[in-house]
Write a structure and sequence with these properties.
Blueprint: E1 17-19, E2 26-28, E3 32-33, H1 56-68, E4 73-75, H2 84-92, E5 101-106, E6 108-111, E7 116-120, H3 124-138, E8 143-148, H4 155-170, E9 174-180, H5 184-191, E10 196-202, H6 210-219, E11 222-226, E12 260-261, E13 265-266, H7 268-281, H8 288-299, E14 303-305, H9 312-319, H10 321-324, H11 329-338
Length: 341
């Protein structure tokens, strides 16, 4: 069904930049997610949490290329690569820190030496320790957007963390904060804080989130979109259904990661949905990935997708979407019709 709510369609003039909620912080309309460049890491039982092996030098080149192409928003987390993603991003941004907006996350415990993540900690005391460590790894004196990385944290504990974030703002350690969660009620709790300015949540052509977008509109929050390319399905690179390398989280997908099957690659049912909308997304000279990003910008004027990358070529393809802008309202409606919603 066509979305006819004018507040949830990105029909305003597309300038290639957006503002993070009510913070006044301007970013490129496309951010870059730094999960993959963290490299391999795992849980104590061997569950892979990364995207396989990476070349750090290529990752740095890709970040530099993104900067040259106008990308100013970079999203990472302390647990990505168990500290490695933050260290690599800090290295790549050395000398250019004031050109960008840096977002990171906290809440997961990990061991940098063994690259093992083990449990979570939702206490304010841990939040301060994690923030101090992230600042050191990133080589910076402030985090622009600090995000709680425990999606299902208890609301009462989250309220204390929201208050702790307000204190971090007063101390000048962070500029704004957010919650990475797919629960609109939890996001609304954080949004009551004066300096809460965003919610990071799953959103892509195959996984719409109308309730979360409504909350972002009502509470003046930016919608930072994780999995904007459906973990790679919307790049067209998994059409063959080939198994993924052992260190890739998609090779043994946890319950919260749809679209892939353990040991057999992409789920054919999801691939069928990708094929159903391929012609619309790849119209007007776009690649499939660029069309998926264009859908997000058309879906809401508050969206800031953060696709991952591991190479200069991926950075260039993703950044190329900016020049083409959002899908039209007619194309947005056609996608909904093709997916039966």
């Amino acid at each position: 069904m066509e979305n006819t709510n004018p507040d949830l369609t990105g029909t305003t003039a597309f300038t290639g930049t957006r503002v993070l909620g009510r913070s006044g912080i301007e970013v490129s309309a496309l951010g870059f997610g730094c999960w993959a460049v963290g490299g391999e890491w795992q849980t104590p039982d061997g569950q892979p949490c990364g995207w396989g092996k990476v070349d750090d030098e290529e990752s740095v080149r890709a970040i530099h290329r993104a900067l040259d192409l106008g990308i100013t928003f970079f999203d990472t987390a302390d647990v990505y690569g168990c500290g490695h993603s933050e260290r690599l991003l800090g290295r790549a941004l050395a000398g250019r820190r004031d050109e960008v907006v840096v977002a990171t996350k906290w809440g997961n415990r990990f061991d940098e030496r063994t690259r093992t993540a083990d449990g979570q900690d939702a206490t304010p005391e841990y939040a301060r320790r994690a923030l101090t460590a992230s600042l050191a790894r990133l080589g910076t004196d402030r985090i622009d957007l600090y995000q709680l990385h425990i999606s299902d944290a208890d609301p009462s504990a989250a309220a204390e963390l929201r208050d702790a974030c307000e204190e971090f703002v007063r101390e000048g350690l962070i500029r704004a904060y957010a919650w990475s969660t797919d629960d609109p009620d939890r996001a609304a709790l954080f949004a009551r804080g004066r300096h809460c300015t965003a919610v990071q949540h799953a959103l892509n052509v195959l996984q719409d989130a109308p309730a979360m977008l409504a909350l972002c509109e009502e509470a003046e929050q930016a919608s930072v979109n994780r999995s904007p390319l459906a973990m790679g399905l919307l790049t067209g690179k998994h059409a063959g259904g080939a198994p993924l390398e052992a260190g890739d989280i998609r090779s043994r997908p946890p319950v919260w990661l749809p679209g892939f099957r353990a040991g057999s690659g992409a789920d054919p049912r999801w691939l069928e949905r990708v094929e159903a909308v391929r012609s619309v997304l790849s119209s007007d000279g776009r690649t499939l990935a660029q069309g998926a990003l264009a859908w997000l910008w058309a879906r809401s004027a508050r969206t800031v997708p953060i696709p991952g990358f591991r190479s200069v070529a991926q950075a260039e393809d993703n950044a190329g979407a900016l020049a083409k802008g959002p899908l039209t309202a007619a194309q947005l409606a056609e996608v909904d019709q093709l997916l039966g919603r």
